Amino acid sequence: MKLMSRLLCLCLCGLLLLSACGREQTAESRPESSAREVSSEEASVEESVSEASSVEKESSVEESSSEVPEEPSEEAPARDLIPVQTDSPVDAYYTDVPRPDITLEQIPAYNGSIDITLNDDKPFLEGDEMEEVQILLTPLDALGRAGCVMMLAGPETLPTAKRRSISSIHPSGFVQAEYPELINESGGKLYQRAHMLMFAFSGLNATEENLITGTHMMNAIGMQGDETSVLEYIRNTGHHVLYRCTPFFAENELVARGVLVEALSLEDDVISFCTYCYNVEPGVEIDYKTGESHLSEEAVQALEETQDAEEPEESEEITRSAEGTSGTRTYICNTNTKKFHYPDCKSVKQMKEKNKLERCCTREELINEGYDPCGNCNP
């Protein structure tokens, strides 16, 4: 029994010793595993930090490159164009039309000639103001006044429809008056609705931005010669003309003091002029601020003297006929309208100087040359 008891005690002691040794080995192995886990976590953190740093560096490079200022463009800013509904066969736009480099103060005062040439008759236009066949109009200002207009005219801009009435348009300062004793046409009416861009080569009809209050003298005589030359040039050549018309108003006046007409042909140098036409009517004084008008003192006196004259008109016709039968005599020819007149005819006073041609010949010679007698003085 004692022996059995001792053996049991020894077995128990051995089991206790084995259990203690196993716990020591487990404790010793735990630090190594934990160290490996910590090392792995630190490596992962370092990789994340490295990746974040790389991303920040790339982002910084992109930001610095995007902050580099772009080189300024040398091209001129595009002109703002607003479409306008017109009768023209080509596109028309509202825009800030460039005016010529001249002011009203630089234009000589009216001295009896309905028009003068400026800038040595060279337009202020350079030729590159417009690249397309189109029309540019300045919107009416706060006083309802028209501004500078410009177009590239050519065969494409010639009207395709007949001209209609424009009586519904009343340009600024259009206070109509009649002076039949001074003006032989249009019932003696002082004012006309003057197209700055001629209908015959623009197609613009009842477009108020293209119409101003113009005297009979300015519209029918001052502007018509240059306008007709441009129209005939386009019809005969099929070429293009850069054309600009600028009205000149003094301060807040409603009626323009005149218009500057410029033209420059692009395919050749045939058309090139710079003409200022005065908005005047001989014998009439105009209040340009309102459009009101009245006869001048000189005109009133001249009309009174004419009425007091005792010589009838028939005797004048007889004298002229007698002079004509004796042979040659002096006539004044209009090279533009192909009419010939007596020197004292009223139409001669309204004729542009550059169109006047004095001839000393017979009546038959002028007719054979293609001239027609004036309907007023009947030469």
Account of the 3D structure:
This protein is α+β, with helices and mostly antiparallel strands. The protein folds into 2 domains: 82-294, Extracellular Endonuclease, Chain A; 326-379, no CATH class. Helices cover 33% and strands 19% of the residues. The chain is built from 8 helices and 16 strands. The protein has helices spanning 2-66, 199-202, 216-222, 224-237, 297-308, 313-325, 346-349, 363-368, and strands at residues 82-84, 92-94, 115-117, 135-137, 149-153, 191-195, 211-215, 241-248, 258-265, 272-278, 284-286, 293-295, 329-334, 339-341, 356-361, 372-373. The strands form 4 sheets. Strands 1-2-4-5-8-9-10-3 form an 8-stranded mixed sheet, with helices on one face. A 4-stranded mixed sheet has the order 15-13-14-16. The chain has a two-stranded antiparallel sheet with strand order 6-7. A hairpin with a 6-residue loop joins strand 11 (284-286) and strand 12. The chain is globular, with a radius of gyration of 47 Å. The N and C termini lie far apart (180 Å). Mean pLDDT is 82; it is low at 24-74 and 314-325.
What is the compact description of this entry?
With 379 residues, the protein is α+β, with helices and mostly antiparallel strands. Helices cover 33% and strands 19% of the residues.
